[in-house]
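Milestone 3.1: sequence recovery, worked example.
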């Protein structure tokens, strides 16, 4: 009897294996169109998403070892081409007009709105980007934004002495509230609390599958968008009803109709505001958190950074804010920010999709495929960054600056290169200024840090802070 059971079990396992291999084969055949690059497509529907999410960077490296720097896969619900070649990546980012448009997930597009910058192409994109650049230009940072950032950071960082701080939460709040102050001059009011809780739901929604079921993150994200749109609409109405004087904040500039080169509709203004807060949120907060981590682990770097910031403070009275010249003098701080972004790899890459069938790198890519411009590995290239796993900000201060080279993808590249780069650097620099000149800190220890697919501390990242 036991022999029979054993035989049946063997046959079952055999049949399951046959079925699985038939499924895998079927999926390969389905995507085996001539002219496609090498690679595997995994399971029907799920593709290789599980391997990608579980193994992360090593999945990409293994596939590259097998198939080269340009291979096909099926991840996150889409047939995808992964490009890890620096030159090709640059070509893809420079050639949006040839049909290589942003390819962000549907949930992100639904929640960020149809006028958000990633959803618009061609001349509309140029116009929206122009409008954005006009409100975050170097002059605007110098005259309008930096004073707001300075004021905000002082308040945000006050009274951390002798406290146990979850630096992940604090940097998230910081990135959001600092943006809100720049956008609409709003600080700690009832509106900011309500806005913040809706915004956090919106962020979760953009990172979820677009499944519209009660209780799903997607549904909550859509609802959060509706609530945020109504808060912003009300703000627009209130401002229009009040005196004609313009507010000196981003919203004020976007609403200005007379001498403004870029005239946006209310819907465009609202999506622009959401885009600004959203784009700077995770990037600025995670870079700030990771800078705190790396500085804690590298006392020599912290010492050099403190030297730079105390030199700035020495020339000032305690209440004097950071100004443009101070910011420009923070060369080592800038290097710390770049080195943090490189080593932590806050951005793994950017997504594009093809709007028509096209030839790329000698292959024929079908319409509607996603292209993952995967830049992570460039950050660890030993030819560009000798001893790549070392946290060494000094490498950014060498004569031939890596920042101006073609392989610098930390802020993207081509027509959609990050317009908020200098603003983000200004925010993180000001945060670091007040943090390292006011405090010393120790990690509580034991908090887990995840590096992929997003850099985050799943249970928070706690530090014990005391005054310096
Ligand atoms: C350390 C901070 C930051 C990092 C690492 C970063 C990184 C990036 C990257 C990699 C892209 C390219 C996306 C793509 O090609 O699809 C991008 C685009 C963008 N970033 Fe940033 N960013 C940062 C801060 C900011 C800030 C503070 C803002 C606020 C205005 C901002 C606004 C944007 C916008 C609007 C785009 C889309 C541009 C377009 O599509 O034309 N970023 N960013």
């Amino acid at each position: 009897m036991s022999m029979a059971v054993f035989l049946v079990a063997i046959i079952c396992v055999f049949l399951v294996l046959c079925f699985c291999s038939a499924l895998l084969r079927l999926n390969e055949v389905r995507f085996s169109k001539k002219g496609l690059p090498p690679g595997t497509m995994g399971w029907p529907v799920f593709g290789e998403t599980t391997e990608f999410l579980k193994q992360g960077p090593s999945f990409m490296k293994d596939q590259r070892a097998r198939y080269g720097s340009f291979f096909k896969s099926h991840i996150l619900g889409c047939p995808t081409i992964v490009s890890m070649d620096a030159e090709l990546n640059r070509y893809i980012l420079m050639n949006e007009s040839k049909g290589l448009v942003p390819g962000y997930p549907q949930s992100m597009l639904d929640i960020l709105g149809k006028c958000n910058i990633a959803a618009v192409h061609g001349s509309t994109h140029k116009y929206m980007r122009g409008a954005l650049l006009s409100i975050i230009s170097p002059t605007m940072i110098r005259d309008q934004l930096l004073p707001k950032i300075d004021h905000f950071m002082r308040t945000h960082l006050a009274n951390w002495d002798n406290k146990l701080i979850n630096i992940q939460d604090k940097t998230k709040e910081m990135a959001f509230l600092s943006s809100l102050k720049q956008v609409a001059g709003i600080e700690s009011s009832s509106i900011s609390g309500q806005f913040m809780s809706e915004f956090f739901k919106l962020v979760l929604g953009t990172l979820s599958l677009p499944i519209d079921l009660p209780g799903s993150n997607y549904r909550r994200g859509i609802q959060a968008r509706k609530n945020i749109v109504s808060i912003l609409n009300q703000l627009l109405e209130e401002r229009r009803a009040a005196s004609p004087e313009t507010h000196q904040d981003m919203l004020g500039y976007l609403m200005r109709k007379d001498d403004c080169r870029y005239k946006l509709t209310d819907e465009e203004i609202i999506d622009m505001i959401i885009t600004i807060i959203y784009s700077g949120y995770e990037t600025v907060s995670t870079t700030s958190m990771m800078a705190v981590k790396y500085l804690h682990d590298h006392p020599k770097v912290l010492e050099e950074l403190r030297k730079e910031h105390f030199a700035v403070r020495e020339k000032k009275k305690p209440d004097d804010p950071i100004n443009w010249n101070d910011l420009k003098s923070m060369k080592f701080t800038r290097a710390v920010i770049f080195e943090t972004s490189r080593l932590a790899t806050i951005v793994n890459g950017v997504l594009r999709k093809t709007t028509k069938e096209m030839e790329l790198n000698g292959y024929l890519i079908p319409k509607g495929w996603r292209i993952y411009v995967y830049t992570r590995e460039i950050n660890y290239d030993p030819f560009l960054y000798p001893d790549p796993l070392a946290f060494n900000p000094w490498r950014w201060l060498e004569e031939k600056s890596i920042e101006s080279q073609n392989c610098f993808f930390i802020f993207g590249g081509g027509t959609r290169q990050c317009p908020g780069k200098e603003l983000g650097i200004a925010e993180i620099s000001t945060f670091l200024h007040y943090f390292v000149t006011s405090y010393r800190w120790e990690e509580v220890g034991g908090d887990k840090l995840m590096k992929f697919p997003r850099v985050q501390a799943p249970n928070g990242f706690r530090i014990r802070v005391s005054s310096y």
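The longest helix spans residues 266-297. The pocket of protoporphyrin IX containing FE is lined by residues 102, 117-118, 129, 132, 136, 275-276, 279-280, 283-284, 287, 341, 346-347, 350, 410-412, 416, 418-420, 423-424 (CB under 6 Å).
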